[in-house]
Design goal:
- By secondary structure, the protein is of the alpha/beta class.
- The protein has two domains: 5-194, 5'-nuclease (Rossmann fold), CATH 3.40.50; 199-352, no CATH class.
- Helix content is 37%, strand content 31%.
- Helix 3 (43-73) packs antiparallel against helix 4 (82-89) and helix 3 (43-73) crosses helix 5 (93-108).
- The longest helix is centred in the N-terminal third of the chain and has 31 residues, at 43-73.
Length: 363
């Protein structure tokens, strides 16, 4: 194994919607169970993460309150009361975020790297010389400079080779000039780099999903687990129309899963004790969607109802499955699917729709 430490920047966390409990970020729990790789994070990245999650939580609470107010007005649920809405308004966002961060740190064994050891003079010199992470377009990236230098100092002081996850070009450029750090663009790239010698296991998986019609039992098990977990996904249709469209209802039903790029398999964890292999693979999830919409037009500030329309159709949603499997080399069909997770929990598809006007409608 070429790396013995791993870290990631704020963008990598944001790309996962700061989903600390599920998906790819949940796979970082493996680093609390091994002494081979240390999971670290700059205190700058930690503070940026906390700030982002607090903002997202506040926005989510605001939307939740709006939905509750509508539920109260339309008498949808008797449990929705004015008092309950007032209680939600008083939610302690900082406390919620603090608990989430604490659990993530404990589960992953995350070590926070202080900026106490940074060389301010070197950062100032890099700023005026436009040396990464500073550039002509990004001259004010002091937080990045603080984070990167503190991480590099830690790696050198502890004789570690640090694998950095970032799709930021200035982070990548900085790492290219460092003897202690190597940068990759995605979490899949990083985790698969830790297991790059497991070519045999990876090739077996590629063969399975390139010829999945041969492995009916295995595919049925995968479909069943997706179906049981699909209610955790947020499915959305982006409606393009000549009019303003308001969604009345949307009911998705999982139909099937397809594996368009089996060579995209990336091994992200190997638990040798339990003989469990965890990997990521790109998929297209097919859902049948029943949905209805009301359309409006704006006339001098007044919204006028111009009609309705519905959708009853099948849609494909690209995603990545994160599959944990107990691989049976002797009989692949007897392999046990331990769990299935999703890389993305918010899925959307753009479609064009206008109000339905019957032929007999009198314009």
């Amino acid at each position: 194994m070429d790396f013995n430490a791993i870290t990631l920047d704020t963008c990598a966390l944001e790309n996962q919607n700061f989903n600390l409990e599920n998906g790819l970020l949940a796979r970082f729990e493996q680093f609390s169970k091994t002494k081979n790789v240390v999971f670290i994070m700059s205190e700058i990245v930690l503070k940026e993460m906390i700030s982002h999650i607090e903002e997202d939580t506040k926005a989510s609470i605001s939307k939740y309150i709006d939905a509750m107010k509508k539920g109260l007005f339309y008498k949808i649920d008797e449990e929705i009361t004015e008092e309950k809405i007032k209680t939600i308004k008083k939610t302690d966002v900082k406390a919620i975020v603090k608990r989430r961060i604490k659990r993530f740190v404990e589960k992953t064994g995350l070590q926070i790297i202080s900026t106490d050891s940074i060389d301010i003079q070197k950062i100032i010199e890099n700023y005026f010389n436009k040396t990464p992470p500073f550039s002509k377009k990004k001259k004010d990236e002091f937080p990045d400079a603080l984070a990167l230098q503190s991480l590099e100092n830690w790696a050198k002081e502890n004789n570690k080779r640090l694998l950095v996850i970032s799709d930021d070009k200035d982070w990548q450029a900085y790492c290219q000039n460092s003897d202690a750090m190597v940068c990759v663009k995605s979490i899949e790239d990083a985790l698969s780099s830790l297991y790059k010698d497991e070519d045999f296991a990876k090739q077996s998986l590629i063969d399975i999903f390139a010829h999945y019609d041969k492995y009916e039992c295995l595919m049925n098990s995968i479909c069943e687990k997706i179906m049981n977990s699909s209610d955790r996904l947020s499915i959305n249709l982006d409606i393009s129309s000549r009019y303003e469209a308001e969604e009345e209802y949307l009911e998705p039903e999982f139909i099937d899963v397809y594996f368009p790029k089996p060579t995209g398999v990336e091994i992200i964890e190997i638990n040798e004790t339990k003989k469990v292999l965890t990997f990521s693979i790109p998929v297209d999830l097919m859902f049948h969607i029943e949905s209805g919409y009301t359309f409006y037009t704006d006339s001098e500030g007044d919204y006028i109802d111009v009609g309705h329309n519905t959708i009853s159709d099948e849609f494909y949603f690209p995603n990545n499955l994160i599959i944990s499997i107990n691989l049976n080399d002797k009989n692949i069909n007897k392999s046990e699917i331990i769990s299935i997770d999703f890389k993305n929990y918010s899925l959307s598809h753009s479609t064009v729709l206008d109000p339905y006007f019957p032929d007999y409608y009198d314009y």
